[in-house]
Amino acid sequence: MKVPYTWLQDCVTVPWPAAEVGARLTMAGFELEALSTAAPPFTGVVVAEILSCEPHSQADKLRVCRVAGVAAAPAVQIVCGASNARAGLKTALAQVGSVLPGDVRISAARLRGVESQGMLASAKELGLGENSEGILELPADAPVGLELREYLNLDESVLDLNVTPNRGDAMSILGIAREVAALAGTRVTGPPFVAVRATHTDRLPVRLDAPAACPRFAGCIVRGLNNRAAVPLWMRERLRRAGLRSISPVVDVTNYVMVELGQPMHAFDLGKLREGIVVRLAREGETITLLDGRSVRVTPEMLLITDAEGPASLAGVMGGERTAVSEDTRDVYFESAYFPPETVLGHARKLGLQTDASQRFERGVDPTQQARAIERALSLLAEIAGGRVGPIEVTESKSHLSQRSPVSLRAKQLARLLGISLPAERVTSALEALGMHVRRNAEDWTVTPPAWRFDIGIEADLIEEVARLTGFEGIPESDALVPQHFPRLPAVRPAEAAVLQALAARGYQEAITYAFVDPVLQERLFPERRGRALANSIASDLSVMRLSLWPGLIRAALENQRRQQDRIRLFEHGTRFEPDGEETREIDSLAAIALGPRLPEQWGVSKESRTREDFYDLKSDLEALFAETGEEARAFTFEPATLAALHPGRSARVLRRGQPVGWLGELHPQLVRALELTYPPMLFELDLEPALAVHRPTYAEISRFPQVRRDLAVVVDESVTLSTLAERVRLAATSLLRDLRVFDVYRGPGLEKGRKSVALGLIFQDISRTLTDDDVERLMASVVTDLRENLNAKIRE
Description:
With about 800 residues, this protein is α+β, with helices and mostly antiparallel strands. The strands form ten sheets. The chain has a seven-stranded mixed β-sheet. Strands 3, 4, 5, 6, 7 and 10 form a six-stranded antiparallel β-sheet that branches. It has a five-stranded mixed β-sheet with strand order 12-15-18-19-20, with no helix packed on it.
């Protein structure tokens, strides 16, 4: 949430500069994510007045203006193409030598033969807006010659705060003002406004058919307003600094009140409403076209604001297009309602929406300030668009309004959890500063939270409030009063740090992705499996629990690719969730993705060495991981297998002593094309504990006798894997075979079609004696016989 410093000052006396306010709020639980100025840096721009504006003789769209604004100098001539340039307009003049955002330097120029001594700037060119239809228009009383930064206070600080989801009360200027007042020991004094007296008695009937979902509804009719009126620059600037754009007087006022008080409002075109308002739950099959033009089908648990013609607004989310206010609207019905968080929670996300109103209602708004919000809006609107104001009508069901229940706070529990005993007066003052009603009972307190504090429900909540108002940094460290016993790490459990460091050493970077993934992507990868759907997802593309770490890694790789990264190697250690009937198994997993060149580009690496990653590169990375287990290499095997997500001919099941522990392969070509990946990525995923369980080393005597090597070239069918060939050799050579090396594989002339030649290096050694030639020849004969009988092998001379 963006909080302009001067807006905050309207509501509370702030005793600190903006940077210190941000630091103190951070320690109180509202992290300061950024501290910026109201506009990007620029120099040499002053308030100016256009004295005359004449058509350019050589260009229909250009005008030649005489502009006053340069101190102690006559009017300067400016050639301008803005359609709103006119005599008498106060605007922004970028003088010769000015530097605008983006390092744009202004110099004298000749445009179609006419000299121009500077530029009349638009809001976009000054960094004051994303779009601009002409040059900046300033109020008629703007002082000519004054620096624009000074006039608009563009060096004002804007605090960008991260408000946690449980603190809906702080999603407003007033809410942050309450926090600053509590921290500074002052009082909230604003926002200031004057109530507008009703000048007519018109009312719109309101009926609450779902009082539990909408227990309070305030409304007011305003007639004869001018929705084409110019919104004052000060309001447009405040909205911009808070992250909103100016639209029209009615919309701007409702947005202003929402940011200031935290109460979302909506304005209906009164002429488009029929026979009054009914607040009810949606009916099966009902649809509504929203303000953004989308037509959505609502479900029976969603709340609607309706009239005789049907839905007029999706309550707590967005208004409807049918009753929207336009520039020609003269009569408006303002609505300000209270919807309990549980009645609107998740409705916006279910429809793929995210609005400022839904964010606030889902977190909880003050149920007592609906009429006050309308009063504030009316007082602002009267100065901008005029109009005749009617009475504010509040329709409510008191039995359904939420009440804050008292919460007990024990002094002993407070001291136990904080590790420090605080004076009772300090505890009381801290809680009262937050607007709570506190009653002291001997050693304890009974505390009733204010209406706007939905997050206070148990004793621990109060202890947290005392701690953050006291200052976490002011609570000293203390030793634990209870001895702590740590469970021993199982001997076979892999050390996480060693695993992650091994991958990092091989050029991978660790990624941390959401445990919730895009259901569309996951279904593409695993069409035969279904992940658990979330009842209340944070976004439509994060709505199912992951069956694998691959969806998150693929998405991260795509984001890197979009940012022009050509070589991507990412890994993640996390949990995947496998449905098992009604239960869900959580499986500790390790996965990686690699795509792009095998090696980074540099002068010492040949072009051939930078070919893209393939199956064997990732297989090599896995073998390096397996070496960390202390298990002999032959315990791990790779068996050809198919998985929907992987290339049919470039995928394998990873086995450890015959037990499946993971997958390895290239992403399926159809998915590569569908996801628009530049290179086919290579992937692996392991069940961490069974795959990387540590094999503790045992003592083994080292032989003092020499090794003997014999080489053997055998011709076998293409279908015979190297692992099968090696296994047969080891069985036939007995325990005297110390090592087996594959040093060549040949296919081509001289061999039958469908056959290959594999060259093996066999290394023999005994622990008790020197092997003789006869010993080795007998072993070699045994190996050759076994290979001929079991693998149809031929010896290649």
